[in-house]
Amino acid sequence: MLSNPASARRGNLVAAAGMTVAIIATIFLYRDDEGNRLHNYGWIFGGIIIGSVVGTLAAKKVKMTAMPEMVSLFNGMGGLCAALISIVEFDHLLHSPVLGWTMYPPLSGLGIEDLFADANLSARILIILLGLIIGSVSFSGSMIAWGKLNGKVKDFSFKGQHIFNIILLLIVLGISAYLVADGGSKLFELPGSHSGNAITDNAPRFYSMLFGLVLVLSLAYGVLFVMPIGGADMPVVISLLNSFTGVAAACGGFLYDNKVMLTGGILVGAAGTLLTILMCKAMNRSLGNVLIGSFGGGQDTAGDPAKQQGHYKEILLSDAAVVMSYANRVIIVPGYGLAVAQAQHACHELEKLLESKGVEVKYAIHPVAGRMPGHMNVLLAEADVSYEKLQEMEQANEEFPTTDVVLVLGANDVVNPAAKSDPASPIYGMPILDVELAKTIIVNKRSMKPGYAGIENDLFFRPKTSMLFGDAKKVLQDLIAEIKNL
Amino acid sequence: MEDILNWISMHEQMIYIVILMIFVGIEVIGRVPSVLHTPLMSGANAIHGVVIIGAIIVMGKAEPDNYLALILGFVAVVVGTLNVVGGFVVTDRMLEMFKGKKKREGNQ
Lengths: 486, 108
Known about the structure:
The complex is a heterodimer. By secondary structure, chain A is an alpha/beta fold. Chain A has three domains: 1-61; 68-293, no CATH class; 313-485, 3-Layer(aba) Sandwich (Rossmann fold), CATH 3.40.50. Helix content of chain A is 60%, strand content 7%. Chain A contains 19 helices and seven strands. Chain A has a seven-stranded parallel β-sheet. In chain A, helix 18 links the parallel strand 5 and strand 6. Chain B has two domains: 1-31; 37-107. Chain B has five helices and no strands. Chain B has helices at 2-10, 12-30, 37-47, 52-61, 67-107. At the A-B interface, helix 1, helix 2, helix 3, helix 5 and helix 9 of A face helix 1, helix 2, helix 3, helix 4 and helix 5 of B.
């Protein structure tokens, strides 16, 4: 149902219904190994109501351009939930370690307890820790991603950070390995054992400390992991964190022997991972490059102040109007600037006006134009632009040579020739829209300042290009007025 | 080694589910056009909110005197619900954008 836009919405509702059934079923039908049902209904329903109200309000009131942030925010919530579950379960384990064993009543009494208990306890500790680590990293990372997308968090990195991050991760894994290996046996000795051994008697506090350390370090890792990555790459990071939270949810599924959690968790974990890989492919960069390479190269190339800005031409509104009205074909390249200016409706007006004058108008949509895949499609759909007019990059590139005018609206990096010619550029290798092949290129921006990735764009200084400065919405409206006067 | 094998045999069903879901997850993504990738990411986000079930279990089993479980469990239920509800509403809003287009094309 998700495979085409029309039925996708219904598919989403079906999924939501399924989730509701699962939640209600759990609340009323759950029975643990001793046959007890759940209590504390008041707290549970209270929590659900609060979460539902806040969640719905937040999701409905936010602007469309803030959607990716919200995805990150809610993803963080999921990670937090998984981490909290792990904390409670670990605490539970410390106070009644034999709990790990009572999961398998059929085998108790056969004297096989000793044989399995160690392994079960170790496994349980491992799963709890995995849920904690993955959930925490996902939570703090998602919060940082949220901050980056709404502009509140700037990029930050320090030299050797990547080594630092790796060491941090190794410490986290090391402590966890110790807890799993050691805790499996020691914890089992705890109940009623007064071995007089100071270490095992104090074990709960010691293990709690180690656990707390894993929690704190994981949270720190999440922050440091996302901090250096540029805002333009956030969608990839969010997709990756999305799959992390899925895996954390699956860990919860193992803990409670719950097939629903396990199914949902692994499904998202696998789907999310593949989606992340696909997004990287669209940018023609490897995942490693996105996570680590990000702005290491940027310092060397973009910061070459000696390189001249060069000479650019400006075009008058009236000339632009003429050139476009008498063209055979105009291709519009929308970018984030269009979304920011909320100029999609004006753009559609221009399209209709030109078409009424016999000009063929199409849109060239780059896979990573905007802030998320499909961003431009959604934006133009909102303005009722016909689906057929949107061309994917490969199609558009074939048409540029026979196009009279290309109008670039607030797009920058996706038409930057450095991606082809400058090996030191951070965007090198990314496939771009070859707008240069057209006869005339008109670029609309508010000013000459660099785009989101902070890189200079040589396209602006090429001979066939002219700049049309101003806010996209105003410029488009003025253009429309001019064309009507012709 | 024996411990590991024993653990696997006791959790057989769970392991089957893991393997199956990996295949399903990959299949699902393969069938979705790239223009729907972002709503899909949002939908997947909502689905991993299923972790709320774990939070409900934690809360449901908490003894009245176990403040840690009560408080953390409550917070977990709230944030878990945020994930689920917020996730589905955001996905719906994203998909709503496609509705107008398709409806018009249906009328032509």
